[in-house]
Structures are given as C-alpha cells and as structure tokens.
Known about the structure:
Elements: E1 9-12, H1 18-29, H2 39-42, H3 49-54, E2 59-65, E3 68-77, E4 83-91, H4 100-114, E5 119-125, H5 129-137, E6 141-142, E7 147-148, E8 156-163, E9 167-172, H6 174-179, H7 181-193, H8 206-221, E10 225-232, E11 235-243, E12 253-261, H9 270-284, E13 289-295, H10 301-306, E14 310-320, E15 326-335
Parallel strand pairs: 4-5, 12-13
Antiparallel strand pairs: 1-2, 2-3, 3-4, 5-8, 6-8, 7-8, 9-10, 10-11, 11-12, 13-15, 14-15
Amino acid sequence: MADLLSPALLRPGRDDDAPGFIRLIGDAWGEYPNCILDVDGENPELRALASYFAGRGGALWTAEQGGEVVGMVGTRPLGADEAWEICRVYVRRDRRGSGLAQSLLDAAEAHAVAAGAQRFVLWTDTRFDAAHAFYEKHGYVRSGSIRILDDVSRSLEFRYAKPARGLVVEALDAAAAASAERRLSAILIRCVAEGASVSFLPPLAPDVARRHWRAVSAEVATGKRLLLAAWLDGRMAGTVQLHLATPQNQPHRAEIRKLLVDPAFRRRGVARVLMQRAEQAARGLGRRLLTLDTLAGSGAEPLFRELGWLEAGRIPGYALDAAGRAEATVLFFKPLGG
Length: 338
C-alpha cells in the first residue's frame, strides 16, 4: 500500500502503467452497481494507453505514490471547434479529497490550453455522482444530450463542457443551470459575505443558496428567466439573470437581477461583459426596456451609470443591512430602442 503521507508524483503516463490503470479504473467502476470493466472486449486501449493518446495528438498523466498508480488523467483534441476532451480522470479511493484530482485536472487543462484549446468537453457516467460534483465545482456544466453506449454496463453518459480561455459569457439551458448550482451557490455566498445587495444577508447558508438556484433553474426551464454565466480562463467567475415573466401589459420589458462576480475575479471586466450580454439577449428577445435596482452607494452603481443606465428615483429605507440598518435603493432603467 502506498504511503499516504508522501505526496503523489505526477508524471507522463506510460504503456507499462497498464496494470495500475486497469486496477484503478476497475476499482472505481466497482463502486457502482452493474458497472463492469471489460478490458479486452470494450477497452483494449488500456493495454497501451500512452500510445493511444499520443496517436491522437493528446497526452496522458499518471499520479504515482510509493511506486503505485493512484491517479490518472488524459486529454486529446476533438478536431472540431478547437475543443479538447478531458478523459480518464480517476483517483484511488483513499487519495480522494487530498487535492490530487484537482492537480490532475489542472495538468490536463493547462496542456490543452497551451495546445490551443478554446473549449473543454468531457463525458461521465450518469451513475458517477461524486464525479459530477467535482466537475461542477470546477465550472463544468451539462451540455447537450445524454450519450447511450452499447456496452456490457448499459452505460448512459452526461456531456459536460466549459470555455477554456478568455472571458466568455454563455446562456445556460435548464440542464446546464441545474448542473451549475454548486458553483453559482459558492459565488452567491461569497458575494453576500462581501456585502452584495442581492436580497440575502450574511452569513448565507449553503442550503439557502442552493434553493435559490434550484428555483432559478426551474424558471429557466419554463422560459421565465434567462441565466447567463461568465467564465474567465476556464473558471466560472460570475452570473446575471434576465427576468422575463413580466405582466401581460409589459411584454416589452425585462428586469436585470442578481449580477454577481466572484470576489476573486473582480476588476477584470466580468460584470461589464455580463451586463452587455444581458442587453444583447434582451434585444434578441424583443425587449425594449430594462429595469433594475441596487443598493445606493453599492460598487455596481457607478458601472450602471457608465453603461448608460438612467436613475428613475430612490426609495429610502428599502432594505435592511446585516446590522438591521435601513438603506436606500436606487431604481434604474435603460431603453434599448426599437
């Protein structure tokens, strides 16, 4: 058994790591019902996995500890849309929670970006709940249809994806919104802790944050809300919502809600781009007037003014802060023309 007190060594994978890879994957699959690894019948590439990835222009890494394989990851170009696939992310059970999985993922993503990747894609079995949580924590969201494999395990796989580089804003459909709940909750909790004016008070409990995003996901599914997320160099950095469920006599209007930027990514243009994309989306949906409100004196107020938003007025004592003090709220609007 490997010495768990010593750090794992990440090195390029080799074909002679095959016994360790097969044992690692087989043990991981064995944690789930009816998940069977048939090496020679369905996964013969495992016998020479380094050569397999090299032949496809990709790369493979092994995490070794005490002479034993305790983790692995691979990546390869997909040949379309400058996307790279993240593959074979496995960590031995007794090394999970140690940060090794993140180190493996970071190595694969960095290699792909250096090779020109604009997008990351991966597939994961629908039974692998822990893997889903791990990928979602790192900014991946559900994307596209479920893949059905004609294998002995009767596998169904989710497709996850995210932008790989630069500042990118995308609209999330219902499946993507639901899979983003973990990361969006973390962003919301951090923003509330920093005093963001978003209807919550610190400390915001994780279950309360998750309930909020579950409600948002439900409204995305019914077309009542548009949810935008921003990634900065592969990390989900912020979000904004466009509330579309306006009264019958206001079909031309939408409301901006919950502009949030993770404090670690502020002053890098994320909020500005989110607002610009929200306006573009509103125009595309035929909305000609946008409204929002924010705490008077908030950090977002100068941004709204700079982006051409007009003050409609102030409501004194509209909301209470964490100490119970009443604070004013500023109402803004922005005609979009048309």
